[in-house]
Amino acid sequence: TIKACLFDLDGVIVDTAKYHFLAWKRLADELGINFTEDDNEKLKGVSRVRSLEIILELGGKTLSEEDFNSFMTKKNDWYLEYVDQMKEDEILPGVLDFLKALKAEGVKVALGSASKNAMRILNLLNITDYFDAIIDGTSVSAAKPDPEVFLKGAEATGTTPAECVVFEDAEAGVEAAINGGMRVVGIGEEEALGKANIVVPGFANFSVEDLKKALA
Ligand code: B16
Ligand code: MG
C-alpha cells in the first residue's frame, strides 16, 4: 500500500532548475569559469554550498570563505529575482490533479527538497496547503543521496519507508529514496534515472491509478 507520497520540488513540481542554471551561469561568468547546461546536471538536487564547490572545481579555482559566502548570496539573490516572477501557471502539467487525487484518497503528501527557498516557492504557487509535511533545506543537514530528507518526511507523515513513494528528477534524489528503503518514481528520462522503480516524463499522463498499477 501507498500511505505517503514525498515530492521533490525543483524539477518535479516546478521547473525552477532553469532559474538555478541561469543564476549559476551568471555567477560562473563573473568568476571566469566556463559552465554549460551539461555541467548543470551535476548540480541538480545538490545543496547551494556543494553547487558552488562543484563550479569552482570545474574552473580549478578557490575562494576565501568571505568571497565564497558573498558569491552564494549573490547567486541566491539572482535566483530569487527569477523565482519571484513565477505564477501558478508554472506548476508542471498534471501536478495539481495528482495532488488533489492523493488528498481525495487520504494519501499523505510531503515535500522533500534540498532547497532553502522551498516555502517561498510553494507559497508563490499557492500549493502550500496540499502538504501535510514540508521537509526542506532548512530542516536537513545531510544532502541527497543521504536519505535524511525523505526519512524525515516519512516520520512527519506517520508512515514507514515501505509505505512511501518518492518522486524525483535527480539521480542523487533517486539514490536518496533507495537508500531510505522507499520506492521511487523518476520524473524525466530513463537514461539518468534508471535506478528508479519506474520513470515517467511527468504527471501529464500519469494518474494515481497508474502509479498503483505500476508499483503493484
Ligand atoms: P537553494 P530540490 C534543489 O532542490 C535543487 O535541485 C538544486 O539545484 C539546488 O541547488 C538546491 O535545491 C538548493 O536550493 O539554493 O534554493 O537552497 O530538487 O531538492 O527540490
Ligand atoms: Mg529536483
Automatic annotation (TrEMBL):
Mg(2+) binds at residues 8, 10, 168-169. Its EC number is 5.4.2.6. Its cofactor is Mg(2+). This is Beta-phosphoglucomutase. Binds 2 magnesium ions per subunit. Belongs to the HAD-like hydrolase superfamily. CbbY/CbbZ/Gph/YieH family. InterPro entries: B-phosphoglucomutase_hydrolase, Beta-PGM, Beta-PGM-like, HAD-like_sf, HAD-SF_hydro_IA, HAD_sf, PGP-like_dom2. The record marks 113, 144 as: Important for catalytic activity and assists the phosphoryl transfer reaction to Asp8 by balancing charge and orienting the reacting groups. It comes from Sediminitomix flava. The keyword Magnesium applies. One of its GO terms (molecular function) is magnesium ion binding. Pfam families: Hydrolase. Keywords: Carbohydrate metabolism, Isomerase, Magnesium, Metal-binding, Phosphoprotein. GO terms for biological process: carbohydrate metabolic process. It catalyses: beta-D-glucose 1-phosphate = beta-D-glucose 6-phosphate. CDD domains: HAD_BPGM. Substrate binds at residues 8-10, 24, 43-48, 51, 75, 113-117, 144. The active site is at residues 8, 10.
